[in-house]
Amino acid sequence: MLAVTMKILALCFVFLVTSCKCESWDFSVAPAPQIETPSEETAPSPAPEAPSPAPEAPSPVPEGWFDVTKYGAIGDGVKDCSSAFLAAWKAACNHGGESTFFIPEGTFLVGHIIFEGPCYNEGSPLVLLNGTLHAPSSPEAFHDDEWIKFQDLRELHVVGGTGTSLLDGQGQEARKHSTKKRPVSLKLLDVVSGSIRNINLLNSKFFNMNLQKCQNITVLGVNITAPSDSPNTDGIHLSQSTNMNITSSIIGVGDDCISIGPGNTDIFISNITCGPGHGISVGSLGKYSNEEDVVGIRVRNCTINGTTNGVRIKSWRGSPVSNALNMTFEDILMINVSNPIIIDQEYCPHKDCSSLKPSKVKLNNVGYRNIWGTSNTKAAVTLVCSSSTPCENVHLTDINFNYTIQEHKFKDSKYKSDDQNPHIPCLSVKGALNGLQISNFQV
What we know:
polygalacturonase activity, Pectate Lyase C-like, 7% helix, 29-stranded parallel β-sheet, mainly beta, secreted, single chain, 2 helices
């Protein structure tokens, strides 16, 4: 039995050996099973890649925006940009809707320019000044009475922006040549309704600003500067204009801070800081024949500092007949002013005026109220009226001045700037005056 069993086991071993191939065993790890890729119909869409940022697009130009640099102006202070300015103005003026004539930051050299209307729909482009305009310095460059003129326009607004907002007349060279034509820096002629706001005028060759035959114009927040010794550099001159408002501005020049010529009606001046200069003047009047009357002038809440006059009315000797009526000056502080209150109807800056006849300009209903400060002259109030055409109804109310004397102006050593008992300035009256009323007068 045991022999049979051993025989069977031997046979089984032989069978196993003969049925196997003599190959080496592979003990490596089997590769991961391949997953069948789904068909396009069943496969999910791959996640989209994040888009790359688009380049920044330039800001769109607003409708009706006319930038002078798009018409060839270059703000380098060298190239004459007059033609480019006029091309941009023409396009803005003719635009069929609201428009803006834009002067960006930079320094632009421009010669004599007239921005003329009428424009589309009887309006005007908004003039937005950010940069600086330079006038040619040579007096030979001008054959006209103005540098920049706006004419025959309605609803004109000239506005300073975020930059220098400056008109530089470069008047040093021109003022050396008194015989040469010297232009006004900025002139408005026949402009009805509008404003000039937040701009600066510097170093004009002649008047800084001239408003002629205008109506309903507001001048606000302007700063006007010229050397104290520069002749005829009036800050703002008005003539033949109606309903004008000049306010909240600083003016220091070589002549009148504001001068009000013939033919003006309803002029309101307020919150002006004036000095240096010749003060605020009505006139001169009567230089020419057939001058129109001056009616309705009100000057209030101003500060006048270091000027040769304060508030002045002046007419020429030998002047023809005209009138200046209903004028009020009130709430005015004077600081070291010569001739703080003056009526001068013998105005004649020429050397010999003795042969001229008295003025025939009639002054009527003139009021001075609440005016105080310090005077550099003993006669703080001087009323020189015409001997042939008396002043009528002049009222002085709440006038109070102290007299200050600057030592270097006098040879007499007893005059001290810190004198404990300063000389009291007085009222000086000359000529004919009817209806003078004085109340609370301390000078």
